[in-house]
Fold:
Amino acid sequence: MINMVKQRFMKSATLFLVFFLLISGLGCNNIQKNEANIQKTLIVAAASNVEPAFTEIAKEFESETGAKIVFSFGATGLLAKQIENGAPFDLFVSADVKTVEGLEAKGEVLPNSKRIYAQGKLVLSWPKEAKQVPLSLEEITKVEFKRIAIATPEIAPYGMAAKETLENLGVWQKLEPRIVYGENVNAVYQYAKTGNVDLVFIPLSLIKPGEKFLAIDEKLHKPIEQALGIMKRSQQIELAKEFDSFLKGQKGLSILERFGYIVTR
Structure:
């Protein structure tokens, strides 16, 4: 009788030990997986104009690598200020080259990581329900176009390109009282969506299928070359390099082209 009790006790103890080890192993695996996921998260500061394209690129990259991309979209100038103030970004995707060069000069950018990834295109668009639309860029001076939105030139390269365009057309002074400023190009695009303005200068990358626009002659403004750089203080430098390599690979370039960017293959 005593031997039977001992045998049952030993069997129960063995099963408990196996169960404990199994649960512990699963727990360790989950912890390791969670730690791995945390280690493979890339935080990207990106100009508003790239949001549609880079959101799609990130999905492809995440699918292939298992990494996670977290974006903070905004005006290039404001994002640069955040970086200077210590924001924990791993990669900066700018709407120009000058801003990245400025951060590079201040020691914020990893040496040899700066590069031009695309050239953007500026267009003139309007609300879907607009009753009056310009047939040419020269027609924007007509009185019916009372409110014209651009991104704030001092912090948004596409806003600067819009201002340069109007200056080179010789109509900036005439139209300046009608200008409405948005913090970034996404804000300007929303002005058109809600019908709060008559015309908007925005990147081609934000135009959705079926939306009307006029292409802007690129001779009317400086080329909108867009650069990126890896942050020197990043804890994910290798992952940032991996994402950049994906961006300049076949899939990344094809997506950028589909959203209207000019890229070098």
